[in-house]
Task: inverse folding
């Protein structure tokens, strides 16, 4: 599941290094847009993280607490489903760490750890703190990168995810 190359960059020539560094920053930024778009409830920012034909698979994570969500397909479906689930009900904060990137032309793979805190707005004592493993395939979209496939698994959680996700 993880990108495990023993180095960060594959390029050596200065121009190639510059391009690769820009690509890597844009690739990781797609995941930042994913998290911050949810946290701010900003549909445009959240949508900017995905390709039009994106798939989001939260099933591996949800299985850890006995939930069975559907595979989400299509950027619009992903954005409306997730933002509607949390609208007026759940406050979120996402932190991204340990991003690893492998680039192959106009496609890339990103693995990262994402810690996501979810609090019921009306009862902040009801929460779910999730440490999730993200595995994403990305494609180049002009000067930026977008996620085409995202698989989210859960390493551990505390709190009550069912109160957050099964409302």
Result:
């Amino acid at each position: 599941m993880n990108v495990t190359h023993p180095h960060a960059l594959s390029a050596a020539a200065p121009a190639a290094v510059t391009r690769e560094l820009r690509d890597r920053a844009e690739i990781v930024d797609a995941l930042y847009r994913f998290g911050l778009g949810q946290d701010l409830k900003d549909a445009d920012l959240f949508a900017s993280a995905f390709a039009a034909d994106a798939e989001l698979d939260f099933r591996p994570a949800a299985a850890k607490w006995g939930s069975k969500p559907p595979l989400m397909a299509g950027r619009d479906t992903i954005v409306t489903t997730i933002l509607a689930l949390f609208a007026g009900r759940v406050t979120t904060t996402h932190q991204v760490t340990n991003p690893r990137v492998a680039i192959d032309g106009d496609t890339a793979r990103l693995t990262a750890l994402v810690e996501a805190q979810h609090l019921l707005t009306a009862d902040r004592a009801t929460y779910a703190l999730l440490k999730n493993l993200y595995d994403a395939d990305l494609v180049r979209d002009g000067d930026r990168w977008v996620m085409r496939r995202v698989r989210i698994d859960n390493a551990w959680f505390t709190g009550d995810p069912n109160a957050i996700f099964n409302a």
